[in-house]
Records
---
Amino acid sequence: MKIFTDAPEGMTVVQNAFIDRFMPHANGEFVKVYLYLLRCADTGQELSLASIADVFDHTEKDVRRALSYWEKQQLLKLKLSPEDVIVSATFLTPPSEERAADVRPDSDSPKKQAKAAKMSDETALHEDKPSSAAKIQMPSRARVKEFSSQEEIRQLFFVAEQYLKHTLSSAEQSDLIYYYDTLHFSPDLIEYLIEYCVSKDSTSRHYMRKVALGWAEAGVSTVAQAKHDTNLYNKNYYAVLNAFGIKGRAPAEPEQEKMARWFGEFGFSIDLVLEACKRTIRSTHQPSFEYADSILTSWHELGVKSMEDIVLLDAQHKQKQKKPADKQTAPAAFNRFNNFYQRKYDYSQLEKKLLKPTNNTT
């Protein structure tokens, strides 16, 4: 990917309009990608989505979302190949104040922001094309500074550093304040969020934010509700592993994604999911999340809601496969094996003749 800008060589110029009007409303990770591209512009360095993702420990889809976001803000112009690969990105002059207002993210409610972010993440899982960025309005630097002076927030930062075993970066501090100020999580709930992610060996900002947005969308506002939510899912996940005969390990991330879809998007009960697992083992003789997913996807498309619906589907399937009972046997074809006269014998009389003693004459 090539990058073009009109800035003088040997320096990275960030326009005041970007800092004043665009940076405060953007996701911090998107800002970092923008500044990194600006730094690499006109250096002759060949960049790819993968190389940028490696720099920030992101995925390629994260980079795509950042580029798409800045294109939507009219600060970048992307050039795509026929295979939908980004081959160049050109920096544009920031639009006027009036035009910027048309594309600036609205100050949505926490629930709307959570839903938008979740939809963006789900789209990224199933599409290779860049998707529009979630409208997450991260706190400004001034807002972070304001909250960081509060004793409650300083204590929260301290607890987070104990769990994460490192000093919080400014981006991580911004995330915690976002949970506190925008999602309206209490410090106790944020502390449990960190504890939960650490227990899952997933302390990346992306994963933690994903969990937080999921709780916000589900209306979770207390530690008790969060524990109920996570325990319910954990219980269901391990029930599925047990049905597959998998023991001694936690579900892998791709397995978690599938199960989250079964219980969340599809809304299936644990009974329906376990029934799909049983049928998977019966058909494949081994655990297969892909096979179970195909069964459950089919049930979802057919509108299955209960075990009674499954019984009805099974009955309909058997009816289609059942052969008509009154089917008559076709007459034997005329060939050299049955073209002679068929004799009729009285087998009882033949038996008497065979058993009757004979008189031997000399």
Note: Residues 242-319 form one domain.
---
Amino acid sequence: MKHLFKSAWPAALLMTAGSIALTACGGGSTLSEPKPLVELNAPAYRMQVVWHRNTGDGGGEFESGFVPATANGLVYTANRDGEVAAFRLENGKRVWHENTDHQLVAGPGIVGDTLLMGTRNGDVVAVSAANGKPRWHTNLASEVLAAPAGEGNIAVARTVDGRVAALDLESGKRLWTIESSVPNLTMRGTASPIIRGNTVYVGTDSGKVLALDLATGEQRWEQTVALPSGRSELERIVDVDGNPLITGNDMYAASAGGAVVAMQPDTGQIRWKEDIASEGNLAVDPQHVYATDLNGGVWSLLRDSGDTEWTTDQLGYRSVSAPAVMDGNVVVGDYEGYVHWLSADNGDEIARGHPIGEAINAQPVVLDDSRALVLGAEGELAMVRFVANQ
């Protein structure tokens, strides 16, 4: 697993997937070595590194709340030392760099001309996207492990103790707060709030998705994605730590407790449910939903029914990142810093590269049909592209 747990359990349980993977959710505990990579014979594509930069301390393998954000030809990054920076997408040249004097653990989220980060001390920190200068910071009393989101003049953050708070984007003043229960043992991670129109969607550690009114925090609906099962608290983990994914009239969510679901965004009604344990973000194309499971398996499901189109375990126990769709195929990173491009037709690996020498926990950020950004756990950032072999 990629994260520590949000509970004071024995250190023996706090393992890195780079050496040994602990699999417990969904029944039983097993110890498994990461699968070795198989040499690709005459791959149709090769990966090139367009540029590479070190963005500073990313916090290591167990801090996965950092994500690159892109806007206006720039990519923005944050790191554990409190630094925020902007780089040009075309060549990776640094445009500006500022230190927030906070111990950041998540972000940046971008809302208009504002960057939002979360801290270990429970702060939401806002800086200018133009130059990184501070705007405000507001303390929410508990760690903010996922990038805050925003819409219009409202920012929304999720804290590790189960709270969701809305803040005025101009001043940081708290507008409303709601609380949800948190189990005794959960994965160390939370979902970022997702905002569409005047509704905020939030995944919880109790295996649910909540829909809240953006202006007031009033609950519109609540839907259970997965119910706890098993005898031990470890087996009963059901966190929804991946961001709910909304496209058109469909919403998708995943639980570490063993469920990927399709839902109606307006009502929360579940259309289909598949038994896949996932803690990361999902990805979609017009016909498919893609997920990576806790064991490093990659899945392709049909959007209309949830039926499995294909699944592959060729990257088993390699702490595979959440998937992204690029030029109709699927791209993921792994714990050794490899980037894998999988065919959307059958899951076969059609290209591979090794742009950075550290774990890629964050979901790749796809820029166009051939280019993507990958961020390493220690702060290495690379733009990669896939080109056809002649």
Note: The mean pLDDT is 89.
---
Amino acid sequence: MKVVEINSLVLAYLGDVIYENYVRRFLIRQGFAHVDELQKNAVKYVSAKSQAKYLKMMIEDGFLTDDELVVVKRARNNKSNSHPKNCDVVTYKNATGLEALLGYLDLSGNQDRVFEIMNYILEE
């Protein structure tokens, strides 16, 4: 199966783990040494609202390629209407788009681009 044929929610499932891993490593390197501190600071990056914000910034800055935008849009347009209670559907779908992009890039063997995207977010 080609990566582009994988269900976008499956890509987001993988991308969520990749995103969370980068954020946790970043915070640990920043010197946060207690789990409660790590968790409190991780929310600044890991919430659907934050992920949607970073995706919007990357789109507005022209940071994403046309192919990457196709992956994001496919994930955003997924038929699922479920979302967490703490955010609206549009925000959740945008966050899912970012996660799907990371999953797509990872499975495509493009870890360098995953790194660039995560640096854009974490160094913002």
Note: The mean pLDDT is 93.
